[in-house]
Structure formats: C-alpha cells, structure tokens
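Researcher: Next sequence.
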Amino acid sequence: MADERPVIAITGASSGIGAATARLAAERGWRVTLAARSQERLDEVASEIGDDAATVLCDVTDWEQQRAMVDTTLKRFGRLDAVFANAGFGAPRGFTESTVEHWREMVLTNVYGAALTIRASVGALRESRGHMLLTSSVAGRRVLPGSLYSCTKHAVSAMGEALRQELDGSGVRVTLISPGMTDTPFFERRPTEGLEPGDVARAVLFALEQPAHVDVNEVLVRPTAQSG
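Model: Next structure:
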C-alpha cells in the first residue's frame, strides 16, 4: 500500500531554520528531503529524523543539483507536496563593506537560487496541488541602510508574489516566511533576544497545515524585543 504521508523538500536544511523545520515537520508526520552543501551536517539532521529523511547535496545556484533534489525526492518518496526555498545568507551593511566575491555569492544564492528551486519543483507541485514556501525577511519588507542583503530579500518577496499570481487557479499555494532577528549561524554576533529557529519552523508548519482552500501568503514574525 502506497505511503500517503506528505513530503517536503527543504533547501538550507543542514542548520538553523531549515533543520528546525525538518525536525518539526517530521514530528508532524511529514517525510523530508534535506538539501544543503554539507553532507556531514545533513547526515546529522537525517539521523535525528530516521527513515523518513532523505539527503541531497545541493548548491542552490547549480541547476542540475536542484533538479536532482526534486528527482531524488520523487524516486525515494513517490510524491512532492511542499518545497521550502530556505537557503540564503547575508553580508555586512554598507556598499563599501564585505567583498565583491561575497556579494556575488549572496545574490546568486538568495535570489537566483530561490528562482531555481521554483523552476525545478513547480511541475511536481502542480501535479500534487502542493505548496511553495520561500524564506524572505523583515528586511524584505523595509529598506535597511546600506544593505544589499535587504535588496535580495525584497527580490524574494517580489518573487513570491509573482509566483502566486502565475499559479493562480492551479491549486498550488505560495507562502513567504519573513522572520525578524533569529538566532542562527546567519549572524556573526548572535542576537540575545532574537527568535529561535524553532519559532520560525512553527510559522512554516502553521502555513502548511491550513486547509487546502486557505493560502497564507505571508507569515511575518518578529521577536517581541525587535522594534523595527
């Protein structure tokens, strides 16, 4: 008898929000494909979840690796019900800070990588009438001084709305997850009063667990101590 439990693929799943979402989704009955660039870290998360987890090495800027993530999921689990385009990282504020090489990798990962995740998975999601989720940010709703990272998250926010409009009538839902300060490896100096990755994971599951006729288009979640 076919296993009818839903399946989610998560990029950036080796740590932080991605790993926390994978753990919580598994607890809630989902099977999970974990995708990231570190096999060692992926294996650590997968070992916590057990047989309901598959791992795929995936640099989201690589089209063939994105396709492999979807193909592996379908071969392993036979279906794909949700995709969480979560991979991304930041840079110091200031248009003369960081390096141009770091900028390039950030823009490619945060923007191009999210677009490739959509392109690789949208066909399977149309078939399952599934759910596409993208990690944006509070920084994707307001402009931060000198922040190219903020610009990339504005692009992701626009991408989510553009996708929602394209998929109108298809049955596929689209959700932006927009966290504020979160205690993840994203920050060199970890925020002391920020969200925990599990807080954001619960927001993801809240959107996923709504009835099929309900499309939560954005979940904006800030720590209580964050004013802006």
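Model: Residues 100-128 form the longest helix (29 residues). The radius of gyration is 16 Å.
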